[in-house]
Amino acid sequence: MLQNLINSLPEWTKASGEADDVAISSRIRLARNLKGIPFPNKANDQQLTKVVETIENAVSRQSDLMIPIKIENLSANQRLIMVEKHLCSPQFIEKPHYRMLVINKEQTISLMVNEEDHLRIQTISPGFNLENALNQANHVDDFLEETLDYSFDETCGFLTSCPTNVGTGIRASVMLHLPGLAMVDQIKQVLSALTQLGINIRGLYGEGTESLGNIYQISNQVTLGHSEEELANNLTSVCRQVIEQERSVRKALMKDSRLQLEDRLCRSYGLLTQARLMNTQEALKLLSDVKLGIDLGIIPEAARVNVKELLFLIRTSILQHIYGKEMNQFERDYHRAMTIREKLASV
Amino acid sequence: MLQNLINSLPEWTKASGEADDVAISSRIRLARNLKGIPFPNKANDQQLTKVVETIENAVSRQSDLMIPIKIENLSANQRLIMVEKHLCSPQFIEKPHYRMLVINKEQTISLMVNEEDHLRIQTISPGFNLENALNQANHVDDFLEETLDYSFDETCGFLTSCPTNVGTGIRASVMLHLPGLAMVDQIKQVLSALTQLGINIRGLYGEGTESLGNIYQISNQVTLGHSEEELANNLTSVCRQVIEQERSVRKALMKDSRLQLEDRLCRSYGLLTQARLMNTQEALKLLSDVKLGIDLGIIPEAARVNVKELLFLIRTSILQHIYGKEMNQFERDYHRAMTIREKLASV
Prior knowledge:
The structure is a homodimer of 347-residue chains. Chain A is built from twelve helices and ten strands. By secondary structure, chain A is an alpha+beta fold. In chain A, the strands form two sheets. In chain A, strands 2-3-4-5-1-8-10-9 form an eight-stranded antiparallel beta sheet, covered by helices on one side. At the A-B interface, helix 8 of A face helix 8 of B.
């Protein structure tokens, strides 16, 4: 079961969704803590063990759907796979002890146990669909609440380790692919305007990570004083605007400099189909171009599924897993280029 | 007949020849002048006309083989085609009056009438084969001498407009493709050593032109005091050394950094198959890489003929001829990229 989970990509990476010319995925994360036990950074070993056991019990009622995984039991590379499939945060695997990840078969739901909070529920939907992700998260939350006793304050709402999460404990985020705005150098301007609206912008793997391949995580900053629905709706309307801006830039590029655009995107495709060595950064940049080319009808639609998969397959941990060995950078670059060529040759 | 000549590429561009992993073509040029008529730069209109008529008469005995073309009768683009197919020098078409070009059907022999000298006989053979080119040139020379009276001095030999050509009037040159030496930064060193041996290095279109696509014309400088055969043999032995140096660099690259080399050459192939806009310089650079890839067995042999043709088809004049119109740079870049894609797609 664990092997199956590790071998396959999350369903949302392959499925299509609303506005997926720009939106890659929509994610909801709820922060929850158990009553009467200190937050993980203050808890001792027994208390952390207690948290793991309590949550393991709670999910065991649906053991056919939810698979608990002790991080300690994973190899270093398997841990990295979890991060690179966005099933947990990079911070989560840094200290593996007393930490557990619970994942559903489709890898659209994951629970991080004993990260910053006792419990973080995360759901991911393909494309632009926070509503669906929120419904799923609420469903899991309700199910767990049947047996778990959450730390909750009548005035403040859910109590969380970090004050920015207090209240609903919700963080909604949408992963957007913004190559058009990047191409016309408007990306910084747009993103800094969002920051002033209380919106957070992050790179591919969340807080403190770099934006690669023109992919940005747009998320809400304030969780106190609003309902889950309000927060999700607010982010939805902000993202809708960004999506429209990206689309209008793309339209203008197609109108004013179509050939130059085609040239750039097709060249990227040419490099991907032929290179023998490629690092992650270049691969993401070129795949970003090719995804844009598909979205604009410049590159055949048939390539879409493979390009979406490649956005994950090229990552270090997954490559090492596929080829069954630890690799140095040169070997990774070699196998990455090979994986890309094979995947695109089958289009 | 003229249309056929213009529509087709010289035979040597398609044929294979000795050492054609490095040597593209071997060329012999003989400078001759008619007795009793001043050199072209000193001659008046009647005298220039006389030269044209005399030579036209001489070749008319083989009118089925040799086609005389008055430069005045060619369009600007047709003139450029003659230069870009290496049938005459760039200087030759600058002043079209009283100038005639005589070409055989295979476009391996051409006579320039009233360039720097009254007559320049040029023969080109594919690959590394100065002997064959010299035999052809001598054959044409003998044939013409049956009816022409050359300006010849018992002590000095053939008299020519420029003193560097006095004597045999021969210039032998070999076009070499030296991407390996360029890649390891040895090209300047090798070429400057040749200069000290009395060897001339020029770019793609002869004197004063730039080297593009790592293609160099290597030719002899001294013509006085040696026989035609001595001069050709001397250049042959120099070129043989350069060819061996290039081959040994290629071998070392294949041994020490094969993957990096494959990566570079295949990326160039990828760009050629996908770009939508491409200027001549980039096209020559990438085609140079691809030719090297074919020579090293990295890129399929099947592409060889098309790549060799493309080295010519991408040139401005030929592109304009194929598409039947004068084009600005953007249009040329567009049609150049299209021509390349179509030609490579048929491989």
